[in-house]
Amino acid sequence: MAIQLVTDQLSNVVDDKFRSQFVGNFKVIQDALNENDWETIKSQVDDLEKEVNQLIAQPEQLEAFKNELWGEIRAIVLPDLSPLQITQEVLTFRTDSQGQQQASMSDRLMAEINYLKGSTEIWQRPITVDDAGRISTDYLVLSTTVKNAKNIGIIGDSVAHGHLADVNFGDILVKASGAKINNVSSSGAHMMNNDDNSIYAQSKQIAGCDLVIIQGTDDDWLANAPVGIKSDDEKTSYIGAFYRVVDNIRSLNPQAKIIVMTATLQVPVDGTTIRRTDRTKNDLGKDLHDYMDAQKLACTDLNLPYADFMQPALFQPMNPAFRKKMMPEGLHPNSVGHQLIAQELAKQLYYFYG
Fold first, then answer.
1. What H or E segment, with its residue span, contains residue 211?
2. In this model, does residue 163 exceed pLDDT 90?
């Protein structure tokens, strides 16, 4: 049934022209509501119903769509924190542990680091990173014995001489102190007085020094020399010669601060073939540890500090990675290995002499 619009009464209110225009507008509305157009609208509703039914037939897709839509609405309307809450949290975080409000969150973090540096002893010490990447206290800077050294004497074998190293520990000590150096160490030197290159003979060539380093050697062990005791002379045993070496150094350098160093742990290799280790027994049934342990006991008797390189915490020559970086053929430290030696010597000097 068509809907009729009543417009005759408009003639009493407006003129004919306006009335005709107004009636024409209502005719457009009436045409849209006629039964002929209703069929079109019904068809469109049917199409929409089919789409809805398809979604209903696929509940997982419908659920995903619903959740996605709900999530977007919630993010807009109901955020986890209101802007006021977020602002308050930022302001709270910017207030540091000392009650000072910083300009930004990054400023607050830097302030806390500076508080830590100011209150923690480790930050007050000089720090060094060597070429192997080890981070430690820089005892070369910390030790007044190193910094104040004017003349340094070194005696020992090929390690002290710096064989296979472009820079040895003596060079590093000189750079740290500015001292003059007299390094008379020699490759293959024995502690015992068996020739002009022996460590005993070297001890007579060092005079007027304020710092002297005596390196223990592995050559007496390899030559099957007796370990010996304190009362032996310089030609009888390793320990007898060691005591006589200290006597010579003290006599010729009465003001010197003396430090002793052991030989290093060692695993000499040819390519990947191990020739021996520091635990290999000589003809007397002794390994390198027997000689170095006796030397450390002698240092205690003589009241001398020593740097012990017979410990895996410092040297790991069995490890191919360590050899590649610090001790290529498992016997002689390279320049990186000598950085380790220099720091350990400086640490023991700092502990004992300052």
1. strand 211-215
2. yes
More confident residue, 18 or 107: 107
d(CA 261, CA 263): 7
- Residue 137 has phi, psi (to 5 degrees) of -60, 135
Q: Helices 83-93 and 105-119 meet at what angle, rounded to 10? A: 20
- Under 8 Å between Cβ of 177 and 346: no
Backbone phi, psi, residue 167, to 5°:
-130, 125
β pairing state of 180-183 and 135-137: unpaired
Q: Is 118 exposed, middle or buried (0-12, 13-18, 19+ CB in 10 A)?
A: exposed
Give the contacts of 333 (CB within 8 A, at least 6 positions apart).
159, 164, 165, 264, 326, 327, 340, 341
Q: Where is 180: in which H helix or E strand?
A: strand 180-183
- pLDDT averaged over the chain? 87
